[in-house]
Design a protein that fits this description.
Layout (H helix, E strand, L loop, with lengths): L1 E5 L3 H17 L3 E6 L10 E3 L2 E3 L9 E3 L2 H7 L4 E4 L6 H9 L4 E5 L6 H14 L3 E4 L6 H12 L5 E11 L12 H4 L1 H5 L2 H11 L4 E7 L7 E7 L4 E10 L6 E8 L2 E6 L2 E6 L5 E2 L7 H15 L8 H20 L3 E2 L1
Parallel strand pairs: 1-2, 1-6, 2-5, 6-7, 7-8, 9-12
Antiparallel strand pairs: 3-4, 9-13, 10-11, 10-17, 11-12, 13-14, 14-15, 15-16
């Protein structure tokens, strides 16, 4: 299957770097083209909260485009990977799907629920696969936590807290990430990873109660209580930190008979009886694993059991409700 990467900034280069390991898993795929509106994207290093991409790139094997219409007119593509600013997610995904092209689109699904619903309708109408890059579902520590929750190995969850903390996202093209109208702010861009995991692990909450800070930018941080009948679940997303602050993702989950924590050294288990230990977690790269799943879904003509697009729509609805709660000071019922 032939494919292109549209958007060659930070995440576009992450996906590009993972192509060899993905090809080892799924077999015959071929990257044929790259597309970015900025010519410099094909030559410069790109920084994100994951660090600076320092790879020296030899792109001579690929056709390079600066216009997506030209890309679609000239190439016969089976699927595309899009790593674009959020305000372009719906437009470019629909443009591709209307041409019968399968789409892997980076998170969040869209800026609004209406846009996400439009994407789903087009995917169904054109009988193409759509997946959103909610990669946390595929990262080993989070997948292991989900397994512990589902298995009840240590009993039911009593309380859970998730944190995702980052320097201000000032590295983006034309600073679009710091414009809430284009990115949805930290709530939709950063915090949505934990929103999506909470939704995956515990289901859609009955409601959300949120507070936010708006010092450097609108909704630069959000802290939320998710309303479940039998557990206390909270999360913090914050990209108001100084540039020297390290990107941090943590969780602490207390079960009836143990507590599990994502710490610097790995996934730690603290049982009610016995000694603390480091849990063995399989190696894996969430960004690569999600694309392996996506490509297999195309090949096998099925929907993902891990990351269906309908879930991504529900997750942005939860995140949007958090912004409403933060702005109004009221609990939003879902």
């Amino acid at each position: 299957m032939d494919f292109a990467i549209i958007g060659f900034g930070g995440l576009g280069k992450v996906h590009y770097g993972n192509v060899p390991r993905i090809a080892e898993r799924v077999g015959d795929i071929r990257l044929v083209a790259l597309c970015d509106v900025e010519e410099s994207a094909f030559h410069v290093r790109t920084s994100t909260n994951l660090g600076e991409n320092n790879a020296e790139l030899d792109l001579s094997a690929y056709r390079l485009y600066r216009d997506v219409e030209e890309l679609f007119a000239r190439e016969r593509l089976d699927f595309v990977i899009t790593a674009l600013p959020t305000y372009l997610h719906e437009k470019i995904a629909v443009m591709a799907m209307e041409r019968g092209i399968h789409v892997f689109s980076e998170k969040p699904m869209a800026l609004t629920a209406a846009q996400g619903e439009h994407m789903l309708r087009v995917a169904r109408k054109k009988h193409v696969k759509l997946m959103i890059g909610q990669c946390v579902r595929y990262f080993p520590e989070y997948a292991a936590l989900k397994e512990l929750i589902d298995s009840n190995k240590y009993g039911k969850v009593i309380q859970a807290d998730f944190q995702r903390i980052s320097p201000s996202a000032t590295w983006s093209w034309q600073n679009w990430m710091m414009d809430e109208a284009k990115s949805g702010g930290a709530t939709l861009d950063l915090h949505v990873h934990d929103v999506d995991f909470i939704h995956w692990a515990f289901g859609v909450p009955k409601g959300v109660t949120s507070v936010s800070t708006n010092y450097k930018s609108k909704h630069e941080s959000v802290r939320t209580l998710y309303h479940y009948e039998d557990k206390v679940v909270t999360a913090l997303g914050d990209w108001g930190m100084p540039g020297c602050f390290p990107f941090t993702q943590r969780f602490t989950v207390r079960f009836e008979r143990a507590t599990v924590e994502r710490a610097e050294k790995g996934l730690m288990l603290y049982p009610e009886e016995g000694e603390a230990s480091l849990l063995e977690v399989p190696a894996g790269n969430g960004h690569a694993e999600e694309l392996v799943d996506f490509i297999n879904c195309i090949r096998e003509d099925r929907e993902s059991a891990v990351n269906p697009p309908e879930d991504s729509l529900k997750s942005i609805k939860i995140a949007i409700a958090e912004k409403v709660s933060a702005d109004t000071g009221k609990t939003v019922v879902l």
